[in-house]
Write a structure and sequence with these properties.
The structure holds 2 protein chains of 2 kinds. Chain A has 11 helices and 16 strands. By secondary structure, chain A is of the alpha+beta class. Among the domains of chain A are: about 5-15 and about 30-170, no CATH class; about 175-275, no CATH class. In chain A, helix 5 (about 195-205) crosses helix 6 (about 210-220), helix 6 (about 210-220) packs across helix 7 (about 260-275) and helix 7 runs parallel beside helix 8. Chain A starts with a strand and ends in an 8-residue tail after the last helix. Chain B is an alpha/beta fold. Chain B is built from 9 helices and 4 strands, in the order E-H-E-H-E-H-H-E-H-H-H-H-H. A 4-stranded parallel beta sheet of chain B has the order 2-1-3-4, with helices on both faces. In chain B, helix 1 (about 15-25) packs parallel to helix 7 and helix 5 packs parallel to helix 6 (about 150-155). Chain B is globular, with a radius of gyration of 16 Å. The mean pLDDT of chain B is about 90. Classes of the chains: A alpha+beta, B alpha/beta. The interface of A and B includes residues 24, 292, 303 and 365 of A.
Chain lengths: ~375, ~200
């Protein structure tokens, strides 16, 4: 699990901010405060950091993620820490793209590799000068590990440092995609917007009955009238359609189901599908879902944390969801815009908010509704 | 089984614990099935009259209100028989939590026989569980740990497990040998038990 993510000059983040992470972290802040930017880090690392080669800048689209105007030295800083490691990289403008200026990976006090011309003292450890990430493109999907990374121990350390980010998912569900029939494919995946749930359910039904059983159990537990989720060929060729069967035997197709049921189904599938150790970012999991079901969704995430060591980051405007973290104030992260970018803190670091929680019996949801979590910049 | 309306901070966890205790101390019970859920002490105090009235209209005969004494418990006194309810309830932040609840219980739940009991573990339900678990003696005692969050984490660990796990862990403690006898060492438990003991039993005894 990651303990922190640090951002500088990344999208609307300007001055360096370190975001503490819990097994489930909840991001709260007004619209345009930086929640979605933070949620996009995993995708950026997968698409960007891996490809920002040290000498060339062939990916100009990545440069749009650099804050403009940038603060400080104008470079983007990204870093994350796990239990025993810390990785950091600095990307700077180059032409119309970005290039890597520095990269350091530490385990405890020892430097595993360092490539930092600005701070050569960092190079005191065993320098390998590897431009790490582009040698590790998609290490969990067929792995292109270059020969220079032949050292097994090093490879293992590097993979572990990148595992959460490489395995991360950004979930931002779209009701239109959830209502679409899924394309049949040999290796279906759950799309960030909910596309493909029919194909994935078909896979589970055929080859992974444990997961489909888990899903049915969740549906029966949380949607009293539901019995199970089914999948069948759609009218259009090579498409699959999902159905919800009720206990009375009636079956409902996506266009007949409520938005809330479809969102709930997709979130449950993402929670069940999350691979061990994965970092899952979810935008507003509460959308269209009844408050009582929101609590059950949070409990599903807690089960994934307990069973498989998954980690979740949730961006929310829901008081009900927030109240589920009443006893974990350090997990509630507040974001707001400052003159030099997004500023981050947690409720646990705000004495007045903690006083309200501990001395006046307020709940985080009450503080959100009444505006206390959105202090003026 | 006798149906009991439960007004507690987390129906699936605290509720299950108190149902178990009622079954041990009084008679087999089952919860009144309702979608109404509470979130925190203020919420219980605010909506308890409505909740109890709805339960009464639905024919429910018994109710249990359970909230933690947490929060600014350094200032909160443990409930004393000589407390004046009106006086304590006039300051919901600092007053005795038992009195604050008593203050909002509708009259139909007091007369002709009192069928609503108030449980306020000092400082939280986990204080009772920590006491049962017998962790290395805590200094100060769990009752003198005033942070609700800290007590929860002392029992469950740094991150909150799923509710089913919380329920299992709590019930495991309560099913341990002599658990009730040991809990009787705690004043807040004795106060709860005394009310239950005074309830008329479903069989009329």
């Amino acid at each position: 699990m990651l303990r922190t993510i640090t951002l500088r000059n990344y999208k609307i983040f300007g001055v360096e901010q370190t975001i503490p992470l819990s097994p489930i972290t909840v991001l709260v802040g007004p619209n345009n405060s930086g929640k979605s930017c933070l949620m996009s880090v995993g995708e950026f690392v997968k698409r960007g950091v891996a490809n920002a080669r040290s000498e060339v800048a062939p990916y100009p689209t990545l440069s749009r993620s650099l804050r403009r105007p940038a603060v400080g030295d104008g470079a983007m800083g990204l870093a994350w820490e796990g239990e025993d490691f810390a990785y950091s990289t600095v990307l700077e403008p180059s032409g119309d793209g970005l290039r890597r200026r520095a990269e350091v990976l530490r385990y405890g006090e020892s430097v595993v590799f360092s490539d930092d011309p600005v701070r050569p003292a960092e190079s005191a450890g065993p320098i390998t000068s590897i431009a790490l990430s582009h040698r590790l493109q998609r290490p969990f999907a067929g792995a292109t590990i270059e020969p220079r990374l032949h050292d097994t121990a090093l490879k293992s350390q590097v993979e572990r440092a990148f595992q959460s980010m490489w395995g991360s998912r950004l979930v931002k569900l779209s009701i239109d995609r959830l209502r679409e029939d899924s394309k049949t494919t040999t290796s279906p995946t759950l799309g960030m917007d909910g596309a493909g749930i029919g194909a994935v359910l078909s896979l589970w039904r055929g080859f992974d009955p444990d997961r489909s059983d888990q899903l049915d159990a969740v549906l029966r537990e949380c949607l009293p009238e539901a019995k199970r989720a089914l999948v069948s060929p759609a009218d259009e060729a090579e498409r699959l359609r999902i159905w919800i069967e009720q206990k009375d035997g009636q079956k409902f197709a996506p266009e007949e189901l409520s938005d809330g049921v479809l969102f709930f189904l997709a979130l449950a599938m993402h929670a069940i599908d999350a691979p061990p150790g994965a970092l899952i970012f979810i935008e507003e999991p509460e959308q269209s879902i009844h408050p009582l079901r929101v609590r059950q969704i949070v409990d599903l995430f807690r089960r994934a944390v307990a069973a498989r060591g998954c980690q979740f980051v949730l961006a929310t405007h829901s008081a009900t969801l927030l109240d589920e973290f009443r006893d974990e104030p350090e997990a509630i992260i507040l974001l707001r815009r400052g003159p030099e970018g997004t500023l981050v803190t947690s409720i646990a670091r705000e004495p007045r908010l903690m006083e309200a929680l501990e001395e006046h019996h307020a709940t985080p949801g009450e503080l959100l509704i009444n505006g206390f979590l959105n202090p003026p910049s | 089984m006798t149906v009991v309306a439960l007004a507690c901070e987390n129906f699936d966890y605290d509720g299950a614990v108190f149902l178990h205790l009622l079954s041990c101390l009084w008679a087999p019970v089952e919860p009144w099935v309702t979608p109404i859920r509470f979130q925190g002490r203020n919420h219980v105090l605010k909506y308890l009259p409505t909740f109890l009235s709805v339960a009464f209209d639905a024919g429910v005969q018994y109710a249990l209100v359970a909230i933690d004494n947490d929060g600014g418990a350094r200032r909160h006194p443990e409930h004393e028989p000589q407390h004046r309810v009106e006086e304590q309830a006039s300051d919901p932040d600092d007053g005795c939590a038992v009195c604050c609840v008593e203050h909002v219980i509708p009259s139909e739940w007091r007369e002709p026989a009192r069928r609503c009991c108030v449980a306020v573990p000092v400082q939280t339900l986990e204080t009772w569980l920590l006491y049962l678990r017998g962790d290395p003696p805590l200094t100060p005692s769990p009752e003198q740990v005033y942070s609700r969050t800290k007590l929860k984490k002392m029992f469950f660990g740094p991150s909150m497990p799923p509710v089913a796990t919380r329920r299992e862990q709590a019930l495991l403690m309560l099913q341990s040998p002599h658990a009730l006898d040991r809990l009787r060492a705690l004043r807040s438990f004795r106060h709860f038990e005394a009310q239950v003991a005074a309830w008329p039993r479903p069989d009329g005894t």
